[in-house]
Automatic annotation (TrEMBL), chains A, B:
PROSITE patterns: AA_TRNA_LIGASE_II (PS50862). Its EC number is 6.1.1.15. Consists of three domains: the N-terminal catalytic domain, the editing domain and the C-terminal anticodon-binding domain. SUPFAM superfamilies: Class II aaRS ABD-related, Class II aaRS and biotin synthetases, YbaK/ProRS associated domain. This is Proline--tRNA ligase. NCBIfam families: PRK09194.1, proS_fam_II. Keywords: Aminoacyl-tRNA synthetase, ATP-binding, Cytoplasm, Ligase, Nucleotide-binding, Protein biosynthesis. Residues 42-464 form the Aminoacyl-transfer RNA synthetases class-II family profile domain. Homodimer.
Length: 583, 583
């Protein structure tokens, strides 16, 4: 039997007004519904209802981890500085790492992630290829000193994560676990009712090369991503850019007087052509200080990570450096560049045979500049930030754009930590090798907020069945009434007996207050019991998600719910569970 | 169906030798059984088996909290310094409080306890007497910078606690919750298989007045306690001392030359009497600097907390101060003290009509000093550290002594925090009052270690059923064998289907290694499947706790276990579950 909660005993201080400092739906609604409270900037307490949701999400994560053979452990939050010195991250990680010293002046940090700790944990104890692969995980509090904590649970300084680490003898074995994890992460999102995309991403500070982010789509998300109906999706920072440049008619190289034109916008306007028909130049220097000029479609931005990948050490020039190289800011082009300048161009520009581009002379531009005839590109590369409308790299169709919340991420770490920290195993022949490692994170508290972002309306939250703090809220309209109150109590325990989590709003409050709170908190189904309906043997059920209402016989309601649950359309989050009642 | 674990996949690095720096059984055995590993001094990682036990204990705690209507929440580990300044504990708590500053130079501490945080959480939101009582709890990581972390999980710097806080309008309501909590704590100990005593204790830094500690009896415990067959128990620091002084025959006041005698030991030896027939004097001063001399039975120690309670501000004199008061160290007594000296005597001394005591003159003592005739006691008080053999304050029988591990504690806080931090509610008449508060802690990781202290032998751990990482370990003697291996697998899933947690030792290891590991890890029941037995349709079962072995038919073993479980003697920890098989 599931529990029956009582609103009269529940600590869930709901708020009528939106809190002043909450910008996004999840933050506002979780505060208003009495699920979380702010303790300090970026530091939150989970109140009983919020904690129930958090636990349900944790359990979903736990079940999916256990299914793929990952083993749960618990590492400490306090991590000795020495381990981070070993990996080199003590200095690299920056001010987001919260640091402290103990009473004996030993340095510690509060773990934002646990690569160092787990590597030190298994080294010297996990020794043989026979024990591999091995995947360990924990669900635990993490710390990151965000410079400007905001967006409620999305950018907080103390948060709950599931982090897993895997150890392998071969790349194939890593790939297998990586694929298992990726599938598990998809299932976790599905079970939590999230509309998500697995996207190509960048490794960032963790240091992985192959990595996928799981993005819950939501306007409040901080990440920009592109995706395609074919299934392709990528973070705009990381995805391949296949821009669609447009051709301008001129095919002859012709220098045009463009007085006062300095920017792409001005150039396009001056010529009356789209920005995508122009070519933008960006001057920089390589690691040795030599001049490199990069060319990208006029309507696209250079991606610095890609630029660095194409030209290691690449740095944009300052105005002074440009002058010293003899460059003309605002009219750079591939024709007539200083001797020795290396030209790197975005691959998409191959699609334009004749460029509209600067003439390396103030107030002049070229049209019809042809690669091979008028200038030579030294190297073609993927250089731009991808954007909606670009070609899908998988199928060529135009990409859509969305904002996304990164709820989880999988990384192939390789030997980044095992090598620096000397964690090795013996292969069949007794030869020592560093472990090949993977790491895998789920933002558990962040997932809770992402669910709210996707499941709410103007009245409050609409929890998917699987993660709802309770499934059914029973609202007796007259508490203490001789008939209504006992009927409500009896129904509550009947429904609970069928395995539902039930809450009964037994507070001595007006009906309007109870309805408003039920909508705000977001119980999937409300069952209203009033004197009049009861006289006819009826109760009213309301589906929170659609607002649909229906009168149902009190004697059959519990059985009906059980039936509905058993025959629900099999949405993995239980979304459709109660829909059948209204059909 | 419960899970079937596989030793071949399990990360449980067992050790053959005792680790060098582990002093006590729980620390040694949990390291050796591959359940915990040290990350830093006083900072531990729970490996998969240790984590399973920890989770089972957590769930027992959670169930008992939910049963008495406490609501689970999760507060942050990071606590703003301001809150601790409000309560006054930022300065009082000392170096055990781990402190840090964030990147904006705001002070934080890592919570060792959460009175400040919860008080600030509910103030301004819990407002009406109608919402009271309200009890909130969390199971969470805590931090305390022990000066010398030791004894494994007993004195660690990062540990898991359940802490609960209750808010009340009246003392009666607090008492009710306090009693509920005390009963729940007893049940938790019972369900974890702990032999424990609820003992009178001292509030310490939390600041409670009425408080009880739950002590698991174990020689490794740091606390000393006394207890009686009548049920009475107390921490020796806190319990009432009813010493049994013995009378010496002299009834006439007589000054005796005692050359060189300075200590009680020397005095007793000189006179050939027990120390309990002598009276010890301790000189000090009160808050105003006036001389106070305390008298206690010669075989007992002064308890400083009690001394302070009898004489606020009481401080023992230094040798210099004694001289300036004209006192003679080593021969102080009530007869002939300096003018104005206040005499405070242990109540137990009322039982001695004539004292053997110092004569306020070097090398001289009195025998036969009679209160009322030769001197006057200004005040009788409870002054001593109680010790085994003293009279039980409840029934008078001699107390037994034990060492104990404090696994949990309940406190009546009163208005200590609500008053300093301004947390108030409105009563029926709209009048504001500070909340009356209680707080209640269970050392969850400490409980795990306490269980091991009480349940082990020279071969390893003997987990009680309820908290065992798995209930049954199936040991196929020949892994990969055509008959043995499938029979083991089949049995494992049969037993698991009956709701047992099962592990199968499918490693390609010698039988001896498997037996040793099974004993070390401490699964309650081992089922050994070998080729020879199997030919006769038999397996061997071994009860870890007693070492009893028995051959049982393979076809009936699973059913037998189910039967045994159903008919087990109802020890709340499930201790007797498998015993029936061997009867």
């Amino acid at each position: 039997m599931s529990e029956v909660m009582r609103m009269s005993k529940l600590y869930a201080p709901t708020l009528k007004e939106d809190p002043a400092d909450a910008e996004i739906a999840s933050h506002k609604l979780m505060l208003r519904a009495g699920m979380i409270r702010k303790t300090a900037s970026g530091v939150y307490t989970f109140l009983p209802l919020g904690y129930k949701v958090l636990s349900k999400v944790e359990n979903i994560v736990r079940e999916e981890m256990d299914k793929i053979g990952a083993q749960e452990i618990m590492m400490p939050a306090l991590q000795p500085a020495e381990l981070w010195h070993e990996s080199g991250r003590w200095d690299d990680y920056g001010p987001e790492l919260m640091r402290l010293v103990d009473r004996h002046d030993h340095g510690f940090c509060l773990g934002p992630t646990h690569e160092e700790l787990i590597t030190s944990l298994i080294r010297n104890e996990l020794r043989s290829y026979k024990e591999l692969p091995c995947t360990l995980y924990q669900i635990q509090v993490k710390f990151r000193d965000e410079i400007r904590p905001r967006l409620g649970l999305f950018r907080s300084r103390e948060f709950i994560m599931k982090d897993a680490y895997s150890f392998h003898a071969t790349q194939e074995s890593l790939q297998e676990t990586y694929d298992d994890m990726s599938r598990a992460y998809g299932t976790i999102c599905d079970r939590c009712g999230l509309d998500y995309r697995p996207v190509e991403a960048d490794g960032g500070q963790i240091g992985g090369k192959v990595t996928t982010e799981f993005m819950a789509l939501a306007p409040a998300g901080e990440a920009e991503l592109v995706h395609c109906t074919c299934g392709y999706a990528a973070n705009t920072e990381a995805g391949e850019c296949l821009a669609r440049p447009t051709e301008y008619e001129a095919t002859e190289l012709k220098k045009i007087h463009t007085p006062g034109v300095r920017t792409i916008e001005e150039l396009a306007e001056f010529l009356g052509i789209p920005e995508s028909s122009t070519v933008k130049a960006l001057s920089g220097k390589d690691a040795e200080g030599k001049l490199v000029v990069m060319f990208v479609p006029g309507d696209h931005e250079l991606n610095e990570i890609k630029a660095e990948r194409a030209v290691p050490g690449f740095e944009l020039l300052t105005d002074e450096e440009m002058e010293s190289f003899g460059l003309h800011k605002g009219s750079m082009g591939p024709v007539g560049l200083p001797e020795g300048a290396r030209i790197v161009a975005a691959r998409s520009l191959k699609g334009i045979s004749h460029w509209v581009v600067g003439a390396n002379e103030d107030d002049y531009h070229y049209v019809g500049a042809e690669e091979g005839r008028d200038f030579t590109v030294d190297e073609w590369a993927d250089l731009c930030v991808v954007k909606p409308g670009d070609c899908c790299p998988d199928c060529g169709l135009p990409l859509s754009g969305s904002r996304g919340i990164e709820v989880s991420q999988v990384f192939q770490l390789g030997t980044r930590y095992s090598e620096t920290m000397g964690a090795t195993f013996h292969d069949e022949d007794g030869v020592e090798h560093p472990f090949i490692m993977g790491c895998y994170g789920v933002g558990v508290s962040r997932t809770v907020a992402a669910i709210v972002e996707q499941h709410n309306d103007e009245n409050g939250i609409q929890w998917p069945f699987n993660v709802a703090p309770a499934h059914v809220c029973i609202i007796p309209l007259t508490v203490g009434d001789d008939e209504v109150q006992p009927a409500a109590e009896k129904l509550a325990s009947e429904i609970a007996d069928f395995g539902f989590d039930v809450v009964i709003d037994d507070r001595k409050e007006r009906a309007g207050v109870k309805f408003a709170d039920a909508d705000l908190i977001g119980w999937p189904l409300q069952v209203v019991i009033g004197k009049r309906g009861l006289a006819e043997g009826n109760v009213e059920v309301k589906l929170r998600r659609t607002g649909q209402k229906k009168d149902v016989s009190l004697s059959t309601i519990a059985e009906l719910l059980r039936f509905a649950k058993r025959n629900a359309r099999k949405h993995p989050s239980g979304l459709g569970t109660f829909a059948g009642i209204f059909e």
